[in-house]
Amino acid sequence: MSHLIKKVGDLERSSIEFYSISETIGTISSARMTMFNIFGSLAQLKHKLIRERTHAGLKTARERGNTSGNLPAITQKSYEKQARYRSGRHCS
After folding, report:
1. Concatenated DSSP letters of 33-77
2. 7 in helix, strand or coil?
């Protein structure tokens, strides 16, 4: 949303007005410009809240000892067993 706000600001400096056909926001009137700014602020707030909650959840999970990401495709024990098999020492 911040990208859109910057672009609309660039258009406004060039004396070009923005109007959204599908929503009642734009830079044509003061009321529409206010709505545009309110929606932009709410979008930024939502983005920051999601980011904060995600980081807090990851931190809590790490503190509990949970790891994120995929599990290793092969364990060390399995790797060593395969290495013995390839070297011809699998009959032990």
Report:
1. HHHHHHHHHHHHHHHHHHHHHHHHHHHHHHHTT---SPPPSS-HH
2. helix
Confidence category of residue 52, pLDDT binned at 50, 70, 90: very high
Domain spans of the chain, in order of start: 2-70
From residue 38, give the alpha-carbon distance in Å to each of 5, 20, 33, 54, 75. Answer: 11, 15, 9, 24, 53
Strand, helix or coil for residue 26? strand
- pLDDT band at residue 53, thresholds of 50, 70 and 90? very high
CA gap 23, 85 in Å, rounded = 66
Whole-number Å distance between alpha carbons of 58 and 12:
41
What b-and-e string marks burial along 58-83, b requiring 16 or more CB atoms within 10 Å of the CB?
A: eeeeeeeeeeeeeeeeeeeeeeeeee
Rounded to whole angstroms, the Cα distance separating 26 from 24 reads: 7
